[in-house]
Amino acid sequence: MYKKLLLPPILLLLGYALLTQSDFKTIASGVAIFLVGMFFMEDGFKVLSGGALEKVLKKVPVMSLHLSLVVFFQQLLFRVPLS
Fold first, then answer.
1. Sequence ranges of the domains in the chain
2. 69, 60 in Cβ contact below 8 A?
3. Which residues make Cβ contacts (< 8 Å) with residue 65, sequence separation at least 6?
4. pLDDT tens digits, residue range 43-52?
């Protein structure tokens, strides 16, 4: 309910800021370019990996992966040689 009531004023404020503030235009265009680039990178990584990473993550149990990462970082932080 509140979303329907708040959306038009928010869009009007954003439109007003885009029309009147040149700095806001610059920041908004930079954020938009960044977000579009992130979407393209996500799609590219999915195509590049071919789902290989997802297959590996499905085979490895989450707890053993988590535990091995915790042990690795503990050894890295406390300078214990990896065995």
1. 2-77
2. no
3. 57
4. 887 777 777 7
